Amino acid sequence: MDIDPVRSPFISVVIPLFKEGSNVHILLAGITMALGKTGHPFELVLIDDGSPDDTWKKISEEAQVIPAVRGFRLSRNFGKELALCAGLERARGDLIIVMDGDGQHPPALLPDMVQLWQTTGADIVEAVKTHRGKESAGSKIGAMLFYFILNKLAGFNLKGASDFKLMSRQAVDAWLQMKERNVFFRGMTAWLGFNRVTIPFQVPGRTGGATGWSLLRRFELALTGISAFSSLPLQFVTVAGFFFLSFSVLFGIYTLALQLFGRSVSGFATVILLLLIIGSLLMISLGIIGEYLARIYEEVKHRPRYVIASSTESTANQQSK
Fold first, then answer.
1. What is the rounded CA–CA span in Å between residue 279 and residue 287?
2. Model confidence over 162-198: pLDDT tens digits?
3. Domain 11-214+305-320, what architecture?
């Protein structure tokens, strides 16, 4: 959709929130101040991803004070990626900015992102991490390994990439056409293409609370990203099968030759070792195939990706009656 050069673009900021009740007020204060510097009208689309704390209460309170706030609460915790889907589907802006709710995507960068979009005309402005902030060594190594594998398997270089992005209406509409249930926002945005520019930023510390990203959830997201954008792990199973088939043929010829020359094959330990290797490979191969089958199973059920339990808009309508 082309934006009227005379009309000021309308900006939507989409923020998924999970157990961020202590951050909501500070976060919104920083965002409204930063967007006020742009001179453009805006809305703040807040998605409470089934938080067990007072996140929804804080959102509802802020919606009564800040007219630009539109809050939606999911019926349970569906995960950040699906909460992002809910926000993007409800964003009404000409420009849509996606950012996290923990304060590690600095609101002060928003005017620079909007200005960069205005000067370059790019469809996507990506905020790229120059420093990952305070993370454990395990998290940093895990992230580096994931991005390396994804780059080699799918060809997308996401090193330093983040979910902190500004996207044009055209780019968001194209993103929304992808209806898969296994959502990996960062990879799907890279797959789209479009003209894009980058802007560097350093990740600050959290403004409060604790991260909801456990090691298990990071691992699940990594599996989703790899299985959603590459079928090479399945081809690994085929290659490994041909390798062991070739090995078996050669070993069979060797055994037959020894038998013809009257020499029996020795090495019971060797046979056991080969059985263990082949058995382990079979189990790994079944696991890889099972992972892809699970993704297919989730897709063919065609369940909704999320369920909205309540919104500040419905509350406002009830109060006005």
1. 12
2. 788 999 999 999 989 888 777 778 878 887 888 888 8
3. Alpha-Beta Complex (3.90)
